[in-house]
Design goal:
The protein is of the alpha/beta class. The chain has 7 helices and 11 strands. Strand 1, helix 1 and strand 2 form a beta-alpha-beta unit. It is globular. The two termini are about 30 Å apart.
Length: about 220
């Protein structure tokens, strides 16, 4: 598979590029800066320089043309304010979908967040509340489209080593998960077309990644 990854220099995305390359897939990392190209090519990805905050749908369509799937793993990142939570976590996700539609790429996997299902509670930090609202809006936009989408909502992200075991279902208790394990789940989801139309929450757990993904698409006995 040829898979275009928005936010290609991010931590989850770089793990994903390495995971896909190890499977024999061709990751295409969409990166904002020329300075990121060497890093992602070292991960085994092809690099395309594209700033989603300064692009239009046709630019994106050209970048993802020929892909079998796209993944939105971009984020405004720590230190960004309320405005960029909207322009990246919401608007850029929608723009990637626009470009995918133009390019005829039907498969779209969105990295969202646990907590995006409801309005942030009183007392939530303004920037984090804006992030959750942006994720909720990006999910709503994607679910309205005629695409083969899957939404993955990880819990709190850590930089711990991959464990290879997760908890994955429509609803799971809150928890954390290494970014490397998120990437392995994304890679498995991309190879599981029956996950299209599912919204999946994800934390660390005891089930091997491939078995966890298989379980969400196989009917229970």
């Amino acid at each position: 598979m040829r898979i275009a990854i928005a936010g290609g220099h991010g931590k989850v995305a770089r793990h994903l590029s390495r995971a896909l390359a190890a499977r024999g897939d061709v990751p295409v990392a969409l990166v904002r800066q020329l300075g990121h190209v060497q890093d992602v090519t070292d991960d085994g990805a092809e690099a395309v320089v594209l700033d989603l905050e300064r692009s239009n749908a046709r630019d994106v369509a050209e970048a993802v043309a020929g892909a079998d799937a796209v993944v939105f793993a971009a984020g405004a990142g720590p230190g960004s304010g309320v405005e960029r939570k909207d322009t990246v976590d919401r608007a850029a996700a929608a723009l990637l979908a626009d470009g995918a539609e133009l390019a005829g790429v039907r498969r779209y996997v969105l990295v969202s967040s646990m907590g995006a299902t409801s309005e942030p509670p009183d007392g939530t930090d303004d920037v984090f509340a804006a992030y959750l609202r942006a994720k909720a809006a990006s999910e709503e936009d994607l679910r309205s489209r005629d695409l083969d989408w899957t939404i993955v909502r990880p819990g709190g992200l850590t930089d711990d080593d991959a464990q290879g075991h997760v908890r994955l279902d429509a609803h799971v208790p809150r928890g954390s998960i290494p970014r490397a394990d998120v990437a392995e789940v994304l890679a498995a989801v991309l190879h599981a077309p029956l996950t299209a139309g599912l919204v999946l929450e994800l934390t660390e757990g005891v089930v091997p990644v491939e078995a966890a993904v298989a379980a969400v698409v196989e009917p229970a006995d």
